[in-house]
Amino acid sequence: MQIYWTTINKIIDETPEVRTYLLDCPEEFTWEEGSHTHFALEGFNAGDKPNRGLIRHMSISTLPNENTIGITTRIREQCSEFKAVLRNHKVGDKVAIFKTHSNVPLKREGKNVYLLSSGVGLATFRPLVLDYLERADNVNQIHSLNIDSSKDFLFTNIFKSAPDKKFTAQFVDNRKDYYEEVKNLAEDRDGLFYVVGSDEFIVQNIEVLREHGIKPEQIMLDKHEQQRSELLSVDLSI
Q1: Which of 194, 158, 162 is closest to 66 using CA atoms?
Q2: DSSP code string of 40-96
Q3: Which of 122, 105, 126 is nearest to 201 (CA)?
């Protein structure tokens, strides 16, 4: 396994609780839209066994042509050991990335694509939207729906409706409006539905989509195949 050590070159305060850490691109490090990586802080591999408290599974919120690796995360006042340490990191500090993979690249199958996310999960979709806006080949249109109860919505400079590009962005701040809209979107029986958020959020979305006739193969999750199969095996008869 190759571990890439790199440097924080910029820290952006996206909202009062959300930061994006922009990292230098190590030589030979490559990724595609929808990628996640293992993001680790110094000291994680200092002992006989890796300190898992200093490692997190994170989405990369940038595209390769931006020439920087973006890690966007929410850091609340009460937070984990990992985020408490990360909060004190400065520009110039070293971090590590490894085991990078994409479970949710943009499918170009001539269909409508729906991006369903909660809070900072929108970071996973930022590269997909940028990729689509740069090259719309074989994608009919994209609709993004994000719920964030904080009302501090992310990336509004990118997630803004552009009718000429067949892209629409919608933000809601409550579950009732969110799931009503998911039901409306599920009327498209041929669409592709991407879902990113907590496991509870993912399961709730799957249940709504399945109840409205969306098949498992139309639902894309940022999960390994085994995890994806388990989440999609929801029993609709219960």
Answers
A1: 158
A2: EETTTTSSSS--GGGEEEEEB-S-GGGTSEEEEEE--SS--HHHHHHHT--TT-EEE
A3: 122
Backbone angles phi, psi at 231, to 5 degrees: -70, -35
Which tens digits make up the pLDDT trace of 125-147? 999 999 999 999 999 999 999 99
* Domain ranges within the chain, ordered by starting residue: 4-101, 111-232
Pull the structure tokens for residue 238.
């219960």
Residue 91 one-letter amino acid: V
For residues 153, 218, 70 and 39, what is the CA-based torsion angle, rounded to 10 degrees? Answer: 120
User: Helices 199-211 and 225-232 sit at what angle, rounded to 10 degrees?
Assistant: 50
0.85 cut: is pTM over it? yes
Q: How far apart are the first and last CA of the chain?
A: 43
CATH number of 111-232: 3.40.50.80
Among residues of the chain, what percentage have pLDDT more than 70?
98
How far is 139 from 105, CA to CA, in rounded Å?
12
> Per CATH, is 4-101 categorized as 3.40.50.2300?
no
Phi then psi dihedrals of residue 188, to 5 deg: -80, 95
* C-alpha distances out from residue 36 to 107, 125, 127, 129, Å: 17, 11, 11, 16
What SS3 state is found at 100? strand
* Cα(199)–Cα(206) distance, integer angstroms: 10
